[in-house]
Amino acid sequence: MNIVCLDMEGVLVPEIWIAFAEASGIPALKRTTRDEPDYDKLMKYRLGILKEHGLGLREIQDVIAGIDPLPGAKDFLDELRSVAQVLILSDTFEQFASPLMKKLSRPTLFCNSLVVAPDGTITDYRMRVENSKLATVKALQGIGFETIAAGDSFNDLAMIRASKTGFLFRSTDQIKKDNPDLQAFDDFPEFLDAIKKALTT
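Given the sequence above, the corresponding structure tokens read:
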């Protein structure tokens, strides 16, 4: 039995931190997992900037409230879910993702959580499990699933390569150049066709 594992940010919805960087006028927060492979290093960098500017969860959630899924993402996901089991694997946080999942008709999401002080300051973060995307794919395979995985960033490559079939979607030129053996797509119809083909092989 197949299960399709998809990254969230950059694949189905815009990058939350980039949107917040633009709204807050702090360009340094535009750095994402497309730029920094070390997620712990990236998050400590982000939390340091938030502390420096006195920003917390409320300010980020206010920006998220105005974010919509990428054009075509909901139709893509609705059709994909009609033919396959789909699991969204993301390194985002439940406090960020919930309103976005509502706009996508509540697909199943595995993500992480933030540690938030009573005043709304984000003090830390908690990963669901170490190397969560790869660990989840391997766990699914361990209970009889074959996985098809796709994402856009460095932190997606391990789950993509561990899967029966893997794709890059809306990835960077550098990641595509470094992984020439992976099929790469930039629009939803072609991406959906490729997944459907993988489901039958």
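DSSP finds nine helices and seven strands in the chain. Try to locate this feature in the token string yourself.
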